[in-house]
């Protein structure tokens, strides 16, 4: 072979290699957990598996801390011109992201009839916090509802049927009275029920408001109804559990310690996210039940958790790559596995038809309760200026639960503040 031919072949090989490198698209992916831990390992493993089947795309997971930290980091990056290409952020951050012109609707990314069908393949209840103004802005990934968990052993000790949870508010208060225990000097050693009021108090409260047939906001995210009589009645019920009936811890109940209080037997019933199911299953040394939230006028829970979003300032190639990555991540077999490992709801009916999910539910029927609650579920509180609006409601809830204000006054003040915040969005 002549030197000229060798040189030509080498040049061709370098050109092909260079072309291959140029066609590889790098995307960054914000995910709301701290660095390290089993969830980070799972996400990193999923990203690596995706790259194996999509060698033209490289995914860089970036772990951004809490949901609250993550939205701040994502918006800061967007304003600086270096946003993530995709991120999992709270579903209720949708209006905040739209108002910042930070994200693109998935309707702009679908390319064919299969993509359109895919977009319609998620549970409708999970899409209520994913769509606005006739467009789809978020794709559900780690989504949840609030569930009632109860300790079957403590039910037996109290003379209650361990297979029958309370079905309504009156029964929950009655059960809680029978499950509350005090020592000889009157100190409470076991609470009947515990609903956390830190972390996401508005969300847990929305479970009560929904059960009383009340809505907290309109679908457009421009109005709130915090001071409506049914909403006030729901808060008064929560207050009465602790202040009058003394079957619920007084004051502010911590979100993070509630599962531990349940695991230690400190409380017999708790309200918490279905996303805690995996943790409780792994750690509980006793048989426990999982049920839908007891209601007063109806059953139901707000949905919760995070969606995938695609960012506007990414290049068209990066948006397209992010779209392919999201489609892969929420495919039935992967969302089924994610639900099994975490306790979050597998987000499509097709995921529940996979062999892995069918086998899991057959062995652990409690896993299906959050899904079965979806037909009664409502959209989580989400408005424009959402963080400010929920902060106003959270402040009102805290004032009522600590006795600083009556339930009616607390919600009247929260409504007035929400109206002030949302005034620019009235049309």
TrEMBL record:
Q: Which Gene3D superfamilies match?
A: Periplasmic binding protein-like II
Q: Residue span of the signal peptide, if any?
A: 1-22
Q: Where's it found, cell-wise?
A: Periplasm
**What Pfam families does its record include?**
SBP_bac_8 (PF13416)
CDD domains per the record? PBP2_UgpB
Q: Which InterPro entries match?
A: Bact_solute-bd_prot1, SBP
- Its main subcellular localisation, reduced to a broad class, is periplasm
Q: Which UniProt keywords apply?
A: Signal
SUPFAM superfamilies per the UniProt record, alphabetical: Periplasmic binding protein-like II
The keyword Transcription belongs to this UniProt entry's keyword annotation: no
Q: Which family does it belong to?
A: Belongs to the bacterial solute-binding protein 1 family.
Write down what this protein is called.
ABC transporter substrate-binding protein
> Which source organism?
Polaromonas aquatica
The organism's lineage is: Bacteria, Pseudomonadati, Pseudomonadota, Betaproteobacteria, Burkholderiales
């Amino acid at each position: 072979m002549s030197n000229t031919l060798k040189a030509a072949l080498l040049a061709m090989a370098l050109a092909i290699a260079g072309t291959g490198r140029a066609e590889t698209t790098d995307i960054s992916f914000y995910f709301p957990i701290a660095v390290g831990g089993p969830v980070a390992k799972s996400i990193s493993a999923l990203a690596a598996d995706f790259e194996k089947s999509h060698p033209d795309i490289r995914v860089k997971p970036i772990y951004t801390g809490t949901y609250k930290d993550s939205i701040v980091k994502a918006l800061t990056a967007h304003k600086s011109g270096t946003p993530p290409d995709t991120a999992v952020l709270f579903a209720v951050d949708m209006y905040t992201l739209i108002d910042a012109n930070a994200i693109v609707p998935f309707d702009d990314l679908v390319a064919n009839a299969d993509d359109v069908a895919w977009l319609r393949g998620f549970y409708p209840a999970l899409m209520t916090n994913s769509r606005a103004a006739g467009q789809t802005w978020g794709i559900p990934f780690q989504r949840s509802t609030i569930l009632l968990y109860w300790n079957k052993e403590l039910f037996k000790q109290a003379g209650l049927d361990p297979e029958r949870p309370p079905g309504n508010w009156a029964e929950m208060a009655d059960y809680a009275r029978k499950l509350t225990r005090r020592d000889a000097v009157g100190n409470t050693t076991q609470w009947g029920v515990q609903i956390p009021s830190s972390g996401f108090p508005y969300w847990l409260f929305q479970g009560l408001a929904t059960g009383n047939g009340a809505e907290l906001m309109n679908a457009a995210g421009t109005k709130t109804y915090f001071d409506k009589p049914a909403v006030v009645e729901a808060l008064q019920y929560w207050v009465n559990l602790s202040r009058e009936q003394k079957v619920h811890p007084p004051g502010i109940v911590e979100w993070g310690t509630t599962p531990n209080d349940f695991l230690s037997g400190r409380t017999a019933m708790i309200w918490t996210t279905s996303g805690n199911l995996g943790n409780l299953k792994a750690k509980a040394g006793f048989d426990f039940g999982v049920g839908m939230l007891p209601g007063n006028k109806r059953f139901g829970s707000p949905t919760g958790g995070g969606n995938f979003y695609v960012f506007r300032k990414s290049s068209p190639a990066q948006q397209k790559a992010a779209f392919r990555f999201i489609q892969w991540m929420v495919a039935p077999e992967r969302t089924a596995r994610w639900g099994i490992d975490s306790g979050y709801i597998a987000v499509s009916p097709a995921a529940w038809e996979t062999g892995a999910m069918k086998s899991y539910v057959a062995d652990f029927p409690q896993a299906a309760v959050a899904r079965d609650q979806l037909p009664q579920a409502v959209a989580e509180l989400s408005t424009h200026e959402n963080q400010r609006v929920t902060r106003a409601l959270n402040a009102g809830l805290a004032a009522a639960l600590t006795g600083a204000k009556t339930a009616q006054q607390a919600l009247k003040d929260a409504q007035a503040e929400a109206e002030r915040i949302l005034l620019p969005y009235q049309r």
